Amino acid sequence: MNGGGPTIIGPLPAKTSLQVNGRQLDFVAEPATTLLEALREQCDVTGPKEVCDRAACGGCTVLLDERPVASCMMLALDATDRKITTVEGIGSVDAPDPLQMAMAEFDAMQCGFCTPGVVTAAKALLIQNPRPNLDEIRAALSGNLCRCGTYPNIFNAVLVASGQEPVEEPTDRGRSASGERA
Amino acid sequence: MNPFAYTSPRNTTDASALAVPNGDFALPVLKSGGMDLLDRMKEGLERPDLVVDLTRIDDPTLDAIDAGRIGGRVTLAMVAESEELRKSAPILGAASGSAATPQVRNVATVAGNLLQETRCWYWRMSQFDCLRKTGDDCPAREGDHRFHVIFQDGPCLMVHPSNLAPALFVLDGEVEVVGGDRTRIPIRDLYADPAVDWRSASVLSPAEIITGIRFKSAPNSAFIALKQKQSFDWPMVSGYAVLDLDGDVIKSARTCAGAVAPRPHPLPQVDAALAGLSIHDEARIRAACEISVDGADPLPGTAYKMTLLPVAIRRAVAAAAHSAGTARGGDA
User: Domains in chain A, ordered, with CATH?
Assistant: First the structure.
């Protein structure tokens, strides 16, 4: 339509393609589909989580061309032709990323629901800044809420994953930041 | 969100044409980052039948940063990270870097920041009607208005949500627009007089698109936000200051308050009182900033802002005088 004008997609479901973790994923969805909905419901990429659905919590964080974004507040059509990385693209169970190893070592989660978003945002930081200081880590993760309150352990994990010393303060009852029993 | 059609024009001429209601689409809407638009659509406040995507317009000037100009599609993150802007006008990076979260700043644009809608929670909830929607009453006046005005410049008690708009006020900024019969609008004319029009987010017509902002260089400029939270929060009060210094003496000053009025609130009386003072004369600078609340008429729930505003302005002036004080975030 519009004789030579830009193509108009929808409102009925239309073919859409996303580049997710190095793979092209094709599916059919309405233009009103968010990137998060497309990933979880159309592409079976369920690492990003829906929590607040308003870009306030960071649970749905994915990397768009290596920058963290809230996939709940972006249309899937806005992300076509962009490089999307989810937590699944950072490491696997068999070959975890050093950041994921450090998260496990420092017990940097309790319920674990925020963890995919935290790992994704922290990975973006380490790509941009391989040796961030504590303030830089806190700033980079300021868009990720952990309601279990595991922040000190998360910060230590990011410090260790970037080859630095953890902050030496007790972060868990009876356990020091380096993971040893006090 | 309601179902809608979607299109990605490659130039602003097509985008402007598509943004005007026509026979095919009665409710088209322009979208850049889409951060505030999707929020409004999810709440049912906006139900477009066509979303006109601006992110694929083929025009590098929309993404460019220069010492005196920023493209309208530049993200808040790029503004905050720009070394060039840190030298020419540090107030812009500080105000941009203080907004929302890293995830939001990586998507939200300069133009979208200027045109975002108010955070008034009554306006934001579809269950309430209000003066700014179709109603005759303001539920905030008798309700919970703790984040609302102290300057009642119009019947709507909202405060303006943009971090960048007051910065452009003190930088004598302009917005570049296409799609209408004008190419520049001074920032002070971008928003309607709240006593006359309290429903529009700006004076732009549906076809007009902000393609950039222009501003004068101001190495001695600073932004301070007083917030409850350091992340994903809008300021309770914010202070903006640009100083023109002759050694340690303030030749002239431009100050503005944010989050206290329906529009950015310039403070010419403070500017006049600051002129001629030494940046070391703390007592007289304090006195000059105290009069920032002149003319205020706070609500019962916003009286606390009367104490915060002089503090925000004073800290902004101090940070502008010592430009090292405008480091990341500008949060205090």
Answer: 14-89 (3.10.20.30), 90-182 (1.10.150.120)
pLDDT, one tens digit per residue, over B65-105 is 999 999 999 999 999 999 999 999 999 999 999 999 999 99
Partners of B50 in the β-ladder = B5, B28
Taking a C-beta distance cutoff of 8 angstroms, is the pair A103, A63 a contact?
no
Last residue of a domain, one of B9, B37, B56: B56
First to last CA, chain A: 71
In terms of Cβ atoms closer than 10 Å to its own Cβ (0-12, 13-18, 19+), residue B306 is middle
Chain B residues within an 8 Å CB radius of A30: 3
DSSP B162: -
Q: Please state, in angstroms and rounded to a whole number, the distance separating the CA atoms of residues B116 and A55.
A: 15
Q: What is the pLDDT of residues B247-285, one digit of tens each?
A: 999 999 999 999 999 999 999 999 999 999 999 999 999
B14 touches A6 (CB < 8 A): yes
For residue B148, how far is the Cα from the chain centroid? 15
Distance from CA of B306 to the nearest CA of A (A): 29
Nearest-by-Cβ selection for B231 from A7, A68, A143: A143
- The domain that holds B66 is classified in CATH as 3.30.465.10
